[in-house]
Amino acid sequence: MSVASRKGLDNSNPLVYESVSQRELTEAEQNDDVVDKFDGREVFDMIRRINDPEHPLTLEELNVVQIDHCEVDDDKNRVVVYYTPTIPHCSMATLIGLAIRVKLLRSLPERFKVDVRIYEGSHVSEAAVNKQLSDKERVAAALENDHLLNVINQCLTIHKK
Amino acid sequence: MATEWSQTVLTGLTNPSPELFRSLATEIDEKRKTLLRIIEIFGPNLTNAELSIRQNALGLIVGILENVKRDTLTEPEISSLADFLCSRLLDHKQLMSQTLRGLNFLVKMEKFREDPQQIIDNLTENVHVLSLPRLDRLNVYALFEALVDRFPAELEKMGSNLLMRYITCMDGEHEPRNLLIVFRTFFKIVRKFDVGPLAETAFDVIACYFPIDNPTAQGDVQENLREAVTVGLRRCLTASPKFAKYCFPLILEKLLSDSNDAKVESLNTLVALCEEGLPVKPDLVEHLSSVWIQLRREILAPPSDSVEDAAVKALTSVTVLLSRGSQEGEESVNSFVTKVLAETEQFLRKPEVQLQQPAGKMLQAVAGGSVEACGRIADATLPLTVRLLMEHQRSDDRIALLNVMVLILKAMGQVSTGGHMDEDERTSVAVFYQSLIGQSPQSMVNCMAINGLALMLKIRAPQPFIQHDRVEQICETLLNGVMGYENSGVVDEATNFFKVVGEVEDEAYIFGKLIPRLFEYIKNREVLPLPVRLLDLATALLRTPRPKRSSDFIDTLIERVRFNDERGPYVPSMKMYLDIIATYVEGVNGPGEALSLHQQVLFPTLRSAIHAATSEDTSGFQDISILLSLSRIYRNIVSHMDKETYGNLIKTLDTMYLRGDTSYRHEIGRGDNLGDKLLPSAFRPLEKPYVTTHTRCISILTSIVCSAPRDFSLGYGQWLKRVLRQLMETCCLCADEQSSVFAAQCIGGLVNRMEDEKMVKECLGDLLDSADLAKARTQERRYTRVIIWITKGLVVRSQPDTIIRQLTDMIIVRLKNQKSGAEAADGLRVILEDSAFVLTPQMNAVISPLYRQKFFLQTLPMLLQSFDQNSEADKTWIQRNHLVALSHLLRCVPQFVTKAFMPKVVPLLLHSLSSDNADLLLSTLTSFEELLLESAADASTTLDTANIPPLIERLLDLSATSTNMEVRVAAVRTLGFVATQCPAPALLPYRVKVLKTLLKVLDDKKRRVREAAVEARGIWCLLSSSTGKGG
């Protein structure tokens, strides 16, 4: 209530989606000798609990990140995540992208080349945001900014439900 | 002497101290001095022109009053003190605080006989309460409360004047802690005395506070205080029937507000007003239509769950209140119910508006209020809903309607009425439900239909809602149609239905028809994968407590056990039937039933088991799981036997186990032709050469001799001596490991039941020291096992320290023995964990409360000492044994007990983290996890900062290098807990290193480790940021 009534929200009444249940443990995962490969679900699990900067909801609940939009190739060391801002003119799109990037930076082994992109056609300034997010220098510079880092850290703080 | 004493008193003026007050009070209590004498000494000070001197003198008097016993002071003394203190109320403001305290103490004196009215007058005329500090205000209210409690008769004369004076005093109070007493006293005054013309004024004063709103309240204490004040205010608002006139409009007004808290509180107040038992019904009737409109609104479109719950509750209370009074009650309820029915019917009829559920809730709430209302709603709604269900074919609509039915049926069960429908109508509802079953096997409709039938079955008054024949038919339908489906909600519901049948139908039907039918069903599928739910169902039916039971069906089960043994043997099927018998046997009711079960179950199966043990053919009865199932049955039968039967049974066992005579002469009075002749070999379970099939039968012996009836004593005679000796020999020397454990358990169970310490000592001497068992004792590992079980038997009954200390010492010494070390370390687990086979309360074992804690407190220092003594670094296995023992000790005892020892234990636990034993590592990591979580719960961390660096180092090492996945997961998780629970400054130096190591762990081959690492690393990343310590 209080968040929605605050001024300047881009999307004051977003659709809330159900979150997926915990990944089921397979027999192979219990076996110490089998190597578990990275897959889309694993990467999705890393980012689904990131908090939205505006709403007290997670990116999963807002359908910003989806399990089918996480592409992982363990052998070629590639991870590509597409995310969908709730509305096409969302001003938080870059911030959300940055949060996903930072989370993956902290959660994936160094060998992976990670790309975070806006899902095609879901945002007006798609190209600009994608360019910003894929520019390593700019990402690093953004993280030097204490205020920005703080906001991102807040997004990444896990709230136990 | 006297002057010296006066000097002491005078020092109290300049230098007041609680000790002095106390000593003076004691002297007065013991009549060595009088209060008058003391006051004489400093009398002039009380009227001194200097304020500070007066203040000191007054402080001394109040100090003495505070400490003096309540019956010491005499009436004249109290009288003059009261006058004096009242006069002080006019004195300087700075004296006010002391004066009020003094008056409070004085009023509590037993011989206080002053006129309370005068004190109240003095107080209210001379004191401006609102301008006083908080504590002084509190004293004023407390004074009021004390007077109201003590002098109701005297204060009665004041009439409404008292209330007037009180509300003048308290008006404007805002401090929550004071409000607690303010509201309490207000309630007492309004309840005890006439409110008179002041009702409206008084209500207005109190209504200002409604609803209590304290958004800044944080933390438990504040939250509790708020809750307490809210309850206090609610009591005030509903304190007098005269308030009702003003209270209903207030509630209705606040219900219109935006705040959910205000709504909930208004609804709670409405409930309180209706349930207080005051004659407020006319006021309710006057406001009824507005109340109904408001409640309906809150239920149809509830702003939150709490509002909805409160509104439903309020609706019930309103109905309860309306139904009070015989004739007129019926009328007002009737008209109310008519209105509710008229309005809800439209929602039921129009599925498109989707308001069936809230409509159902309203109906349920009203129906729950009175039998009359419930009857009318049932009469009107059940047939209507059935009709609608027939019309609607969309499953969503049907489910919604069935939900409404469920709610109404629940209400009917609660107020126990079946409505006024005649039998045909009731049956037609049941038949309709029955027809829904099986239409679509997996669907929700099916589940809800069965659920509805179960609810109908629960309605037994004034007559059963469903007739017995119908119940039988439904059971048959369910058994034929539904139980075949595995793993579906329908089966759950059906199982639940059968459970209700088990509760409401009589035993003739249950044992005569239902259970045999069920077993027939089971029998036909016993070779298929066993239908687990059916077994659950059978167990549930057998467990339902009933006055009379019939064990006829057991013969069939034993028949099936034999059949499965001969045809297979099919051990799982045998075990299943035996477990069903065991469930039935759990409910043995007295020696009579035990005796008949002895004949019916114990004797025949025991015979089969012994026969099988001596036979060379394979038999299901040789299987250990079957023997354990048998033991489970025997334990329950035997522990309920009377002394005589049990004595005979022991004699039989004696002939069988010790003399190898298996002719059962004791049982059947003559030689059995099944006896020795047919036994391929003699039965010698406790003698060489220790045949495994024989020795395993010790499990049966254990279950019988260790479950002796409470009043039966085995003594410690020749017989028991012999049994114990042979058991010990068998335990140490037999080939079969499992039999050895059985024997040790048996010894433990027998020792537990010995009557006095002398016997125990004698027995210990025989077993542990005597020469003829020396050979057995050379088997170090097995011997340790015997010691462990003896210790367990004695620890459980909290034997005096010396014996236990001696035995524990023997165990701890054996930790350093290469052969028995591991067994000894595991022994602490055996001692502290509950065993299912021996030393349980069901077996009449002597169990003392908190024995684990006692044992822990005694053993931990011994263990730590032993650990310190062996500093030889080369013998790592000794250390490991100690650490394993320690981990068992810590795991089996609640955390609040272990907490005090943690500073000593943590270094050892750190040591354990260097071990390579996965079990030990996991157990230690769990200990650390608990320790860390606990330290967060109460701010004082039990983990010393000095221990954090080595802990982090070890955890990092384990996370990266351990070969066991579980260990890696636990280590990484614990690392995360370290970051959330330990103070950040101690962690920051390690942040970079931890992040670097965890980066490697992020590429672990196992996903579970990686997931844990992602979480832990996330927390460590946030460590330095201003968002705190990771949420």
From TrEMBL, chain A:
One GO location term (cellular component): cytosolic [4Fe-4S] assembly targeting complex
Name of the protein in its database record: MIP18 family-like domain-containing protein
Gene3D superfamilies reported for this sequence: 6.10.250.1280, Fe-S cluster assembly (FSCA)
GO biological process: chromosome segregation; protein maturation
PANTHER family assigned: CYTOSOLIC IRON-SULFUR ASSEMBLY COMPONENT 2B, CYTOSOLIC IRON-SULFUR ASSEMBLY COMPONENT 2B-RELATED
Gene source species: Ramazzottius varieornatus
Family from the record: Belongs to the MIP18 family.
A Pfam family reported for this protein in Swiss-Prot or TrEMBL: FeS_assembly_P
Keywords: Chromosome partition
Segments forming domain MIP18 family-like: 42-116
TrEMBL record, chain B:
Domain annotation MMS19 N-terminal: ranges: 42-300
Keywords from the UniProt entry: Cytoplasm, Cytoskeleton, DNA damage, DNA repair, Nucleus, Repeat
Residue ranges annotated for the MMS19 C-terminal domain, each copy included: 596-978
Segments passing through the bilayer: none
GO CC term, one of those recorded: cytosolic [4Fe-4S] assembly targeting complex
Subcellular location: Cytoplasm, Cytoskeleton, Spindle; Nucleus
SUPFAM superfamilies attached to this UniProt entry: ARM repeat
Broad class of where this protein is predominantly found: cytoplasm
Function text: Key component of the cytosolic iron-sulfur protein assembly (CIA) complex, a multiprotein complex that mediates the incorporation of iron-sulfur cluster into apoproteins specifically involved in DNA metabolism and genomic integrity. In the CIA complex, MMS19 acts as an adapter between early-acting CIA components and a subset of cellular target iron-sulfur proteins.
PANTHER family: DNA REPAIR/TRANSCRIPTION PROTEIN MET18/MMS19, MMS19 NUCLEOTIDE EXCISION REPAIR PROTEIN HOMOLOG
Similarity remark: Belongs to the MET18/MMS19 family.
Protein name from the UniProt record: MMS19 nucleotide excision repair protein
Organism of derivation: Ramazzottius varieornatus
